[in-house]
Design a protein that fits this description.
alpha+beta, five-stranded mixed β-sheet
Amino acid sequence: MIRIIIYQNGQSEYTGFRMEGHAGYAEHGQDIVCAAVSVLVINTINAIEAFTEDSSKHAIHEEKDVVSFDILSTSISDSAQLLLRSLVLGLEGIRSEYGKKYLEIKKKKRHA
């Protein structure tokens, strides 16, 4: 199962996420759920870095199956919020289509 925690600040703005695990929908290399989630996550990181001025950090640990991303800016841009909301929308769509057995999404408040 892929587990994703979406972090939010006190104003309910998205501030980052942590993803870990594999969906287990199909064999390694054939798992369309893992592939879809990975594309959304990596594209979101790349888009925020390319199209916003927000300061951020990310870590990808392939051997541990973990990706983490955090916006470090105290004021999060509307563009970064839109990209993170788009990520959540896509993830929720995958979960709706393929089931909670393969993808768990939790939202967690995190204060600076």
